[in-house]
């Protein structure tokens, strides 16, 4: 353990950093901060990211901290052996998830005296595209060629050493540093569009049905003005938005099987409430980061609606919202039917029994009529286009069991959409390159179906090639139906995911080495 520190180390620690991650076990940072009179808190892998308190500067020891490691927990907390370094514990842990979020949301990330020998950190940095301009590596003067080659993959190299870096930091006038401003990165506020934009086209509807890809402005206008050209209106969405607006409903939980419209329902309610002067915030990240930013939302005045998809992944968030006791904070959440069947009592308890449940697994008679009119309008019945109205009605009731997902699967199999799917999935390049893209795509969806995070790092390990590199040349085509964010890849539409997997596996084999 350190007993003294250098002036350069003190100067670096004197800057008002948002947080400090360190792979060192020693107490150099802590001694510097103590000498400077700066309050700080120490965190190790054995603690939870949710425990981080931003009232003091967080110091996060990735490989453990000698000073607090107990004899019993020493082996678990302190990473010393090669076997520990080459394992993937950190990148797959809750702290690794937090580190990913911090990388994505921070305007500047500086690595001081770090060579990426720790494969965990390298894996995480290699997950993201477009990060190089925000990442800087401070290394000693005249670094080796191999180090330059390694680090230049991830960011800009500053060969100025710790002393040179401390001089730069010392020259920054803290009086000119802008005061800390609260901003949301894990929550996305739903905004009402200022203009109508272009008219809705048939291809827009086809892209939405096929892959969940839509123009947010068009969808917002379509929903707010009750046009419903993009999709049919689920009757309970009007009930939920009306009841919340009038104060008759506090919280709503929407549940259904995959593909029956949960996400679209949430988006629809979000725009309807935003149009009624609610401040609507959609959860877009993991619970630890959402909770980290929750104090910002808590301090916003007026009516607030929190939209939370996959509520069973965010139970702590629900409990935190309920604990506030504010009458003007409402929650509209979603879950799968299977989760509700197994854990309904648990989720009701999280909401303090002040939640109403709505199922989307069965289309009402009125919604069936809307479905028929919708598919007729865009000629999406395929071979059933010539059927009479009553026959189509019976088909949805009986053959589709009143489930929207089976109706959409029927539309996906229509010639119009089938040709569009074929066009998108016709990846260019050598046969091996095309097979690699398909392997990444199919495996990501199999992981999603198994409710395992489809991390590109994990996929790379399973397929034994660089998944991010494999899909990089096809980003434009993949953007039509998939979402690549925070180092993960997912198809926006669960129905389209099922369709792609079934049709791809008929023609291709997936080889996991």
Distance between the termini: 44 Å
**Any idea what the CATH architecture of the largest domain is?**
3-Layer(aba) Sandwich
State the total count of DSSP E strands: 14
Count the DSSP helices: 24
Largest sheet: 6 strands, mixed
Which of globular, elongated, flat, extended, rod-shaped describes the shape? globular
How big is the Rg?
A: 26 Å
Strand order of the largest sheet: 7-9-10-11-8-12
Low-pLDDT windows of residues: 81-88, 508-513
* Helix share, percent: 40-55%
Report mean pLDDT, rounded to a whole number.
81
Strand content: 5-15%
Query: What is the class of the largest domain in the CATH system?
Result: Alpha Beta
Tally of structural domains: 4
Structural class by helix and strand composition:
alpha/beta
Find the CATH superfamily of the largest domain.
P-loop containing nucleotide triphosphate hydrolases
Looking at CATH, which topology of the largest domain would you report? Rossmann fold
């Amino acid at each position: 353990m350190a007993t003294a520190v250098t002036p350069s180390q003190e100067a670096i620690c004197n800057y008002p950093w948002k947080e400090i991650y360190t792979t060192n076990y020693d107490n150099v940072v802590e001694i510097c901060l103590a000498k400077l009179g700066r309050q700080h808190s120490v965190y190790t892998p054995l603690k939870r990211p949710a425990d981080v308190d931003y009232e003091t500067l967080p110091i996060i020891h990735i490989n453990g901290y000698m000073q607090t490691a107990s004899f019993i927990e020493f082996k678990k907390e302190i990473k010393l052996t090669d076997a520990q370094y080459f394992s993937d514990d950190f990148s797959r842990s809750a702290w690794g998830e937090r580190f990913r979020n911090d990388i994505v949301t921070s305007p500047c990330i500086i690595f001081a005296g770090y060579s990426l020998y720790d494969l965990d950190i390298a894996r995480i940095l290699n997950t993201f595209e477009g990060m190089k301009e925000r990442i800087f590596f401070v290394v000693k003067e005249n670094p080796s060629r191999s180090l330059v080659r390694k680090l230049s993959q991830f960011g800009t190299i500053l060969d100025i050493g710790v002393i040179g870096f401390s001089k730069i930091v010392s020259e920054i006038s803290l009086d000119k540093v802008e005061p800390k401003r609260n901003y949301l990165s894990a929550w996305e506020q739903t905004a009402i569009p200022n203009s109508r934009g272009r008219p809705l086209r048939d291809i827009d509807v086809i892209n939405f049905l096929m892959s969940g890809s839509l123009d947010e402005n068009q969808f917002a206008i379509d929903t707010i003005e009750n046009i419903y050209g993009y999709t049919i209106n689920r009757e309970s969405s009007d009930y939920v938005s009306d009841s919340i607006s009038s104060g008759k409903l506090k919280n709503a939980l929407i549940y259904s099987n995959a593909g029956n419209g949960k996400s679209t329902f949430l988006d629809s309610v979000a725009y309807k409430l935003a149009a009624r002067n609610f401040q609507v915030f959609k959860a877009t990240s993991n619970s630890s980061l959402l909770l980290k930013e929750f104090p910002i939302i808590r301090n916003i005045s007026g009516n607030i609606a929190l939209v939370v998809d996959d509520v069973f992944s965010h139970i702590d968030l629900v409990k935190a919202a309920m604990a506030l006791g504010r009458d003007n904070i409402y929650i509209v959440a979603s879950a799968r039917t299977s989760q509700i069947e197994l854990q309904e009592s648990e989720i009701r308890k999280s909401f303090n029994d002040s939640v109403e449940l709505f199922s989307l697994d069965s289309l009402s008679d009125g919604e069936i009529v809307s479905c028929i009119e919708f598919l007729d309008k865009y000629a999406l019945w395929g071979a059933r286009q010539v059927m009479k109205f009553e026959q189509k009605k019976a088909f949805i009731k009986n053959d589709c069991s009143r489930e929207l997902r089976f109706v959409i699967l029927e539309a996906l199999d229509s010639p119009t959409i089938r040709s569009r799917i074929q066009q998108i999935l016709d990846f260019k390049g050598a046969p091996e390159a095309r097979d690699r893209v398909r392997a990444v795509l199919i495996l990501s969806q199999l992981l999603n179906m198994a409710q395992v995070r489809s991390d590109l790092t994990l996929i790379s390990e399973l397929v034994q090639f660089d998944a991010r590199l494999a899909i990089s040349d096809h980003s434009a085509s993949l953007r039509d139906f998939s979402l690549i964010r925070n180092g993960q890849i997912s198809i926006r539409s669960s129905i389209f995911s099922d369709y792609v997997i079934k049709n791809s596996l008929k023609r291709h084999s997936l080889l996991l080495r």
